[in-house]
């Protein structure tokens, strides 16, 4: 049984994990960089260990220091959160060989799902629907152009090791292929340390719909509904909601079943997300699998009443799922807005600094997951996510009104600080978003008119 858990992360997700540990009676070990010594998770933890200077490479990505902290404090498990080391199979393996439970899927499954081209191949074998494309890395410009001509333009060139919306280029014609290929490989090499890229059809006007799955170590899997994450800026999510109300119930149930089948077919365990693109008629195409907890998991928690961090811990403990698919009830509608310290008017440039004013909204079915308190510094070393505002209501319309009310209550201020809160309010009022008619290009298209 897990009695003491080390959280190898920071910010809101570290706090989120700590809270569930408390409820389960599990002791919390927080690790932090010197920039985060007064952070919220440090205040909440039973034990806090400084693992290095602010630069992530020297602290939150520093495997020896993290494993050492776990061994010295007597932790028996490590939760990696999202980002940082959460998708690093070497880290998972090192934890396991040090006798620590890594909260996530087996390292080999992580490795396969971490490479989008490999994941595509495995899910294709499992019978999941795919956009036309290849699984082997493209060998040369000529090779890529031949593949693209076969698939038909537009295509998207993607870094196999990519993530966070980076390492992707849309190509509309053969003339543009060469430049896009060279620049995507450059980004892939520089950011992901692996230049391999592959090509698939670019689906214009699509929606991003993802399915939350939970698989235990005994071959049982369930899905907890889906989330629509079509509201994106440059391929990065900004607002997420559930359910994907533009799909029929039958389409959503089929999608959920496909997701569970795909996850079980690769031996997945724990909480995972199967991401799909969905076209105008509701047809899904597998895109990638994220082998970790997602930023937007609270949307699913609000819809189902299931604590996903708790389930992750119980599964890692070896317990079978305590419920089956027929026990999962999704009700109402939930929305999450990412409140980032960014200036939407300046291309979403980060605005780090001191939080002189930071007041959370409250009220019925209103939740703020955050790692910050008033007076804290937002460090330029880490991502700009201040907090996630999540609401639930019986209908999508009511959830939007509730979110608007909550956003209006939220007060954030500091020298030079901007947030995405005002943009969210404008989006909630946009007729296309209100009518659920938006797609993944919507935000980039309407941004100029919202500023
Ligand atoms: P990442 O791992 O970087 O988040 P994803 O593969 O999940 O990358 O893709 C991120 C986003 O890029 C998707 O949500 C979607 O908006 C867009 N995208 C990816 N592949 C395609 C495609 N084939 N057609 C259209 N849009 C795509």
User: Which structural class matches the secondary elements?
Assistant: alpha+beta
Work out the helicity level.
Answer: 25-40%
Distance between the termini: 52 Å
- Into which percentage range does the β-strand content fall? 25-35%
Widest β-sheet, arrangement of strands: 13-12-9-10-11-14-21-19
| Number of DSSP helical runs | 15
| Ligand kinds | adenosine-5'-diphosphate
Instruction: Evaluate the radius of gyration.
Output: 21 Å
Tell me about the biggest sheet?
A: 8 strands, antiparallel
Low-pLDDT segments: none
Average pLDDT figure: 97
Number of strands: 22
| C-alpha geometry | globular
How does the SSE layout of this entry go?
Layout: E1 4-7, H1 11-24, E2 27-33, H2 40-44, E3 47-52, H3 63-73, E4 77-79, H4 89-97, E5 101-102, H5 107-114, H6 116-125, H7 141-151, E6 155-163, E7 166-171, H8 174-192, E8 197-201, E9 207-215, E10 221-233, E11 236-242, H9 249-265, E12 270-278, E13 284-290, H10 297-304, H11 308-316, E14 333-340, E15 342-343, E16 349-350, E17 353-354, E18 357-359, E19 366-370, E20 377-378, E21 385-393, H12 396-409, E22 411-413, H13 421-429, H14 431-434, H15 442-450
Parallel strand pairs: 1-2, 1-4, 2-3, 4-5
Antiparallel strand pairs: 6-7, 6-8, 9-10, 9-12, 10-11, 11-14, 12-13, 14-21, 15-16, 17-20, 18-22, 19-21
This protein binds adenosine-5'-diphosphate.
Adenosine-5'-diphosphate (ADP) binds at residues 131, 156, 162-165, 168, 200-203, 206, 208, 232, 235, 275, 277, 287-288, 440.
Organism: Microbacterium deminutum
EC number: 6.3.4.14
InterPro entries: ATP-grasp (IPR011761), BC-like_N (IPR005481), Biotin_carboxylase_complex (IPR050856), Biotin_carboxylation_dom (IPR011764), Biotin_COase_C (IPR005482), CPAse_ATP-bd (IPR005479), PreATP-grasp_dom_sf (IPR016185), Rudment_hybrid_motif (IPR011054)
